[in-house]
């Protein structure tokens, strides 16, 4: 990696420094306001420096080819709600020859979409001819995706209906998949199904993405019989379901209270060499947690640990309350310890309940160990104390 890339990577991934400890220990209201204002001012300065460095580095062709730096920088600014700064760095990119490249132009459209700035994404698309970049179905799809990312679902549907004839673009299957996704997200299930069934009439075969989108919304909304019909149609068209398809069906079965059938479906996945992921296991664990079935929850958590995937935050958010509500604080302690080792950002209240339960059961050693473990972490922004026992 060149020295330029190393320097840039360090700048664009740097975490803003925290206010000094001296500020944090002040007690007066005036000083507390000073802390807040100083912190905000420091962050603003750091982000402006980030923007200035980004624009300076953009003069390098090698830098402009590094998509990950663009994504991380825009995500950081979007997280800080600095939308004018996002506009500053992205509009600055239009001066470079890369803008005539469809891929580079689509990147700007996508980045605006990911930031929730759909009007700006549409403006880039409208300007493409002026920027010597032809508008194609690919850039059209990038615009539709930006609308979905911005949650402007109604605009996605409107653009799909009006824009193609105006700019002489024929939507492809990807276009239809994006619009079906938008219709599902805005709650227009009937319209989504209508467009889905229309595909055959216009000579476009639904693919796995199409089926997964429809299956997800049907099972999620409790329309299990309709979902099973779509599943059968998928198989009849020789579209092979993947792990996402099965996860959707697993969640639907659990939602319908068919947990035992969900277990059988997991076995079917394995027999077809489809490896369950953490979402598959979480779907089953939710069923056992909702049913307060501690033994099955332990069994499937054990299988998850033995699998090729790791538990995630949702896993621990489901399991820890299950066990402390059943007064099994030993298991809750083990889960908390594993969650901390994996740097899961669980809420302070959840850890507090486990610590308090351990103390009530005279398991002071484990309570102390858990408090020490939590307080020794660098990623958690809070500290715990042992409860005072009368």
Write a structural description:
- It holds the Pfam family PPR.
- It comes from Cannabis sativa.
- The protein has 390 residues and is mostly helical.
- The protein has 4 domains: 61-160; 172-239; 241-310, no CATH class; 319-389, no CATH class.
- It is 70% helix and 0% strand.
- It is flat, with a radius of gyration of 26 Å.
- The chain starts with a helix and ends in a 15-residue tail after the last helix.
- The model is unreliable at 1-5 and 15-32 (pLDDT under 50).
List the helices and strands and how they pair.
Layout: H1 3-12, H2 21-24, H3 29-57, H4 61-64, H5 67-79, H6 83-92, H7 102-114, H8 118-127, H9 137-149, H10 153-167, H11 173-185, H12 189-198, H13 208-220, H14 224-236, H15 243-255, H16 259-271, H17 278-290, H18 294-306, H19 313-325, H20 329-341, H21 348-360, H22 364-375
Helix pairs in contact: 1-3, 3-6, 7-8, 7-9, 8-9, 9-10, 9-11, 10-11, 11-12, 11-13, 12-13, 13-14, 13-15, 15-16, 15-17, 16-17, 17-18, 17-19, 19-20, 20-21, 20-22, 21-22
Shape: flat
Count every helix, treating DSSP H or I runs of 4 or more residues as helices.
Answer: 22
Structural class: mainly alpha
Spatial gap, N to C terminus: 61 Å
Please, how many domains? 4
Series of H and E elements: HHHHHHHHHHHHHHHHHHHHHH
Helix percentage = over 70%
Which segments are poorly predicted (pLDDT under 50) over 5 or more consecutive residues?
Answer: 1-5, 15-32
Radius of gyration computed on alpha carbons:
26 Å
GO biological process, one term: mitochondria-nucleus signaling pathway
Protein name: Pentatricopeptide repeat-containing protein
Keywords: Repeat
Pfam families: PPR, PPR_2
């Amino acid at each position: 990696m060149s020295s330029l890339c190393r320097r840039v990577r360090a700048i664009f991934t740097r975490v803003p420094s925290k206010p000094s400890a001296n500020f944090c220990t002040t007690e007066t209201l005036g000083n507390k306001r000073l802390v807040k204002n100083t912190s905000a001012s420091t962050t603003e300065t750091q982000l402006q420096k980030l923007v200035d460095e980004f624009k300076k580095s953009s003069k390098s062709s090698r830098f402009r080819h590094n998509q990950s730096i663009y994504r991380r920088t825009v995500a950081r600014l979007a997280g800080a709600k600095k939308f004018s700064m996002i506009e500053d760095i992205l509009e600055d990119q239009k001066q470079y020859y890369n803008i005539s490249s469809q891929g580079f132009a689509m990147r700007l459209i996508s980045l605006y979409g990911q930031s929730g700035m759909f009007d700006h994404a549409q403006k880039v698309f409208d300007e493409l001819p002026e920027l010597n970049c032809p508008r194609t179905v690919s850039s059209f799809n990038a615009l539709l995706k930006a609308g979905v990312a911005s949650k402007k679902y109604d605009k996605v549907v409107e653009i799909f209906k009006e824009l193609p004839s105006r700019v002489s673009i024929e939507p492809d299957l990807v276009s239809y998949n994006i619009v079906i996704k938008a219709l599902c997200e805005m709650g227009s299930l009937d319209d989504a199904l209508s467009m889905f069934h229309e595909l055959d009439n216009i000579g476009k075969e639904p693919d796995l993405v199409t089926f997964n989108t429809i299956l997800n919304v049907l099972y999620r909304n409790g329309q299990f019989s309709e979902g099973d019909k779509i599943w059968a149609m998928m198989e009849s068209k020789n579209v092979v379901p993947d792990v996402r398809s099965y996860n959707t069906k697993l969640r639907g079965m659990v939602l319908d209270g068919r947990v035992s059938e969900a277990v059988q479906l997991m076995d079917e996945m394995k027999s077809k060499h489809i490896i369950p992921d953490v979402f598959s296991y979480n779907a089953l664990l939710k069923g056992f947690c909702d049913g307060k079935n501690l033994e099955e929850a332990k069994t499937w958590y054990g299988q998850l640990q033995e699998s090729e995937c790791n538990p995630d935050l949702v896993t621990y958010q489901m399991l820890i309350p299950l066990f402390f509500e059943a007064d099994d604080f030993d298991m809750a302690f083990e889960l908390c310890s594993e969650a901390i080792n994996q740097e899961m950002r669980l809420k302070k209240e959840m850890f507090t309940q486990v610590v308090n339960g351990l103390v009530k059961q005279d398991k002071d050693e484990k309570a102390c160990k858990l408090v020490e473990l939590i307080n020794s972490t660098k990623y958690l922004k809070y500290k715990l104390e042992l409860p005072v026992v009368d």
